[in-house]
Amino acid sequence: MKIFVIGTCLGLLFCVSVAQAAGQYIVSNARLTKVGNTSGNGPSFWVVAVDGVGQCITQSMQTNIYFPEQYAGNKEIFNRAYSTALAAIASGRRVNIYNYTDGACDKAVAIELIAE
C-alpha cells in the first residue's frame, strides 16, 4: 500500500512538473514601442515588442502582447509587470517576456528588464 501511494505521489508530481513546463519565453531581447493600460476596459495591459525574437514578434504587422491579471499569481505580480513594462519603454531597455501557460501572446505574465 505504501509503495502505491509513493508511486502515485511521484506520478502526480511529474504531471504537475510537465504542466508547469508548458510555459515559455514568447519574446526575447526586444524593445517595447507601445504600452496600453487596459484591454477592453478589463484588468489587463498590453505591449508591443520589436527588434527581438519569439512568436510574438512579427515584422509585417503590430502584435499586441496581453498581460491579463487573471494569469498573474496575484494583483501585486500584475502591478509589478506593468511597472516593469513602463520602465522598459521609458528607458529603452530590452526585455524578455514569459508566458507560464502556453506560447500564446494573450497570456503573458512575466517581463524581465535587460541591462545593456
Describe this structure in words.
This protein is an alpha+beta fold and 116 residues long. It has a single domain (24-114), classed as Beta Barrel (OB fold (Dihydrolipoamide Acetyltransferase, E2P)), CATH 2.40.50.110. Helices cover 31% and strands 31% of the residues. The chain contains 2 helices and 5 strands, in the order H-E-E-E-H-E-E. It has helices spanning 2-20, 75-91; strands at 24-36, 44-50, 64-68, 94-99, 110-114. The chain has a 5-stranded antiparallel β-sheet with strand order 3-2-1-4-5, with helices on one face.
Strand content: 25-35%
Shape: globular
Terminal Cα separation, in Å?
Answer: 56 Å
Mean pLDDT: 85
Features:
single chain, 116 residues, OB fold (Dihydrolipoamide Acetyltransferase, E2P), 5-stranded antiparallel sheet, 2 helices, globular, disordered N terminus
Write the layout of secondary structure elements.
Layout: H1 2-20, E1 24-36, E2 44-50, E3 64-68, H2 75-91, E4 94-99, E5 110-114
Antiparallel strand pairs: 1-2, 1-4, 2-3, 4-5
Quick take:
The chain has 116 residues and is of the alpha+beta class. The chain has helices at 2-20, 75-91; strands at residues 24-36, 44-50, 64-68, 94-99, 110-114. The protein contains 2 helices and 5 strands.
